[in-house]
Amino acid sequence: MIEDPDPGPDSGPEGRMLSSPDELEFSPNSSQHELSELSALELSEEVGPKDKSLLCLPEKSGYRDTVYVKAAHIFQGIRLDKAPDKVVLRYGEEPPIDLPDFEDETNLRLSYELAFSALKYQDILENILIDSCFYPNVSIPDALTSLVVVMLYDFQDRKFQSRLITDVEQSISEVQEVENLLNSFKTKLAAALARCRIKHDALSIYHILPETVRKQEQRASTLPLYAWVNTCKISPEGICDDLKKEGYTKVKSALDFDCKSFCMDQHCSDVIIFPSHLKSELLNIELCTGYKLLFQDKSRSLAVHSVKTLLNMDDDILLVNMGSWYTVAHMSTLTNQNTSKIYVCGVKAQTKESELQDLFSNMGCRNIEVLNENFTDIEAKDQRLQKVKVILLLPRCSGLGVSNPIEFILNENEDADLLKDHSQGAIAKDKLHVLAEQQYEQLKHAMQFSKAQAIVYCTCSVYPEENEVVVKKALELGVEGNKVQPYRLSPPVLPLCSAKEIHSSIDKFFKVEPSEITNGCFLAVLTRERDPSETVSVKDVLARAAAKGLLDGIELAKTSKREKKKKKSKTSLVKPSTNEGMSTQIKIAEFLSREMKPHAKISSETLTAKVPASQKSTAPSSSPPQKKLVKMPPNALVPSLMKNLPSTSKGFERQMITVRPRPEDKMVALKPVEIVLPPVMVTYSGAQANKSQIPAPQFYYRWIGGI
């Protein structure tokens, strides 16, 4: 029960107590009605959506001294500055005390959480310190004001109960001094807090926060965990099997979660979703310690999967402002590590580069190259980046689409200044304008890379000024020069799994709104328009299709180096085939034969070739037994043919292109032997006129009329 403040002399005169009279005009003698309300509020404290989820948690016992000091340092850098006429407390310019060095991620997270909580309630905490007469009665250096504020928040969060201190804990004298002062003012601090709640008609100080901040906290309390599978070490199916062996149950979606369960993500095939309360347990299993399962915000997985859909086998990628190194590793697992490279810019420290290489090596990623320059300092014609076809741009943004900013800061190496905007639920217009200009400059610079064919632009912002406006502004600018095709906005390349996603795709953007199951995300894919004058070689298309395994079972002939040097006109081909099952292979052979220039005919007396069964049935019944097949490579006859061609071959080729075969032309056998029809034949206007010019052993004979 909160005790009534002692109206003794240490309370100080009321006029001195009220440095902020617009907020803190209270009578020194509380009425009986207020005292009864105070008791009721104490009994009903911490009621609300946020606090109901904490009923099953053990009572808080405070933090280590090092956590308080680290939290004070963070708060000192992100606290809200006020106008000179509204200043309540004075904060020193120097850090409170020497910052302790610890790499423990758990304590670092606790420090950020404590600093962020103090930031959200900064006004309330400052007013409580004034209303309780803690200031100015207590003489304490201004440099320790940040430490006082963060420790006061924890003190009231523990219902003003004493902190439990272990013997092994490192003691810091400044922390002990502030704690003793707060304990000596416990009654007055509790009463000032109660009066503040009565004034705002709030059951707890949580209900004094802006509605946008409260909704954000509610989403953060239910937000599940997202982890991607390192396919360099294990497959998604293997991960699922191992999780089932550990006692986890696979469910259909995040809405079906129970105590120990997981599900697959609908957008990214290698992403698994877990309930949030399982994180500490999952981090200790071998799947996570062995870099097989890595936790990261889903927005980054959406970005790298968007890049994957735009890649060919040997394309390089440039990552800009990647934040977490896990983003780089995830991109590496989705590419062909033997033919593609991933360039990461902005790594300046040599020691950091060696640490990263060790990390990537442990994760099985072998195709990552680190660049020391900042992205905007790299020239578009840099020789190292001439094979870069896709640029992934993750610019620094307001991040207000993220429900849990602390996890985002720690995982994505973001600036703690992000907490300022989240504590208010909005961002200042001037700061938003600065961010939008930086994003525009980076996107404009990315569009200058003439070899790049696509740009993926991704933010975690909910503001159109950072999303659609930036993209449309850059597209309107275009790219200078006539040799480079302009960019255009392409439709989303990810599955659309909800009505909102389908609606947002109308404008060719991919947007995910913040919710209880995911953070907000914005994606735009920019691709270059195809040059209408650019002709793509059929052989190149077929070769690329064959490399991707799309032409299984179909053999493609190779063109000799000698033939590539010859620049002859390509003759039209006639395809005599009655078998529809061979149509695809014959068409491919027609295209490839243009490169090979198959002008040679093989004598039917010495050579035969295999033909479809339907064509063999047309041979005369009196034909002698089939002669022994002689296989010769198609290119073996080309050199000798080119030597024996007459000087008028160019004119003859042009003539062959324009002359069409007469309908009465028929194929007949020179001798009573089996008729052999190759897959591709060359038509001639008159075989008698040209027979003497073409060596017989290298051509099939074509006769007009009967014998």
Description:
38% of the residues lie in helices and 8% in strands. The N terminus and C terminus are likely disordered. A hairpin with a 6-residue loop joins β3 and β4. The protein has 707 residues and is of the alpha/beta class. α5 packs across α19 and α6 packs across α10. It starts with 13 loop residues before the first helix and ends in a 16-residue tail after the last helix.
Summary?
Helix content is 38%, strand content 8%. By secondary structure, it is an alpha/beta fold. Among the domains are: 65-209, no CATH class; 305-528.
What sort of overall outline do the alpha carbons produce when their principal axes are compared? elongated
Spans where pLDDT lies below 50 across 5 or more residues: 1-57, 566-578, 597-659, 681-707
From the N-terminal CA to the C-terminal CA, the straight-line distance is: 122 Å
Mean pLDDT: 75
User: How many helices in DSSP terms?
Assistant: 29
Fraction in beta strands: 5-15%
Biased composition (Basic residues): 560-570
Protein name: NOP2/Sun RNA methyltransferase family member 7
Keywords: Coiled coil, Methyltransferase, RNA-binding, S-adenosyl-L-methionine, Transferase
Family: Belongs to the class I-like SAM-binding methyltransferase superfamily. RsmB/NOP family.
